[in-house]
Amino acid sequence: MRIEIVVFDGFDEIDVFGPFEALSSAGFQVALAAVERPGVVVSMRGVSLNVSAVLGEADGVVVPGGGWLNHAEEGSWAQAQRKVLPNRLVELAPNTRWLASVCTGTMLLATAGLLTGRHATTNHNAFDELAPHVAEVIDERVVDDGDRITAGGLTAGLDLGLWITERELGSERADQVSRSMEYERQGRVWHAPKRR
User: Given 16, 78, 142, 162, which is the most exposed site by the fewest CB atoms within 10 A?
Assistant: First the structure.
C-alpha cells in the first residue's frame, strides 16, 4: 500500500513526520509528495526538503496543516486560497481508499468540500472554522469517518499513523509499532456511524 503525505511550503513539521514515522515503521510505502512539481519545499520552521514525488499515485493521502491559524503567507491557509491543492484532493478522492489529515490539514479537506456531512476533528483553535463544513466537530485525537480520517492538533499525527496501521494491518501490528516508537496512544478513535 502506497501512502503519500503531501508537503507544501509552510507545512508543520510534526504533522508530516509524526505520521511518516508511524506508517513507515509499520511497513507501508510512504512518500512525501509535492502538490504540483518536484523540487524544494520549505517547512514553516525553515526545514528544506528536496521532494521528488508529486501527489497522485497513492492508495491513501495524508494532508498536514501549518500556517492556518495566523493566515501565514505559506502553509495550509495559503494553499486553500490558491485552490490548487484542494482541487487536486477532489480529483484524487474517488481513486483513493481514504484521505486523512492532521491538525489544520483538515481545513484543506473541508474547504475542498470533502468533509460535507462528515464528522471530523482538527486543531482545537480551528473548531469554529471547521463547524460550518461538517456534520459535527468531534473533540477527539482521531476521527474515522470511513474514507475520511482526521486527527487533532500536532502530536495527534502519531495517533493517526497508528490508527491507520491498525485499520489496515490489525491491532497487533499497531501495538508493535507503538512499542518500537516508545509512544503510548493518547486517546481513543471516534468512529462515525455506519453509512446506509
Answer: 78
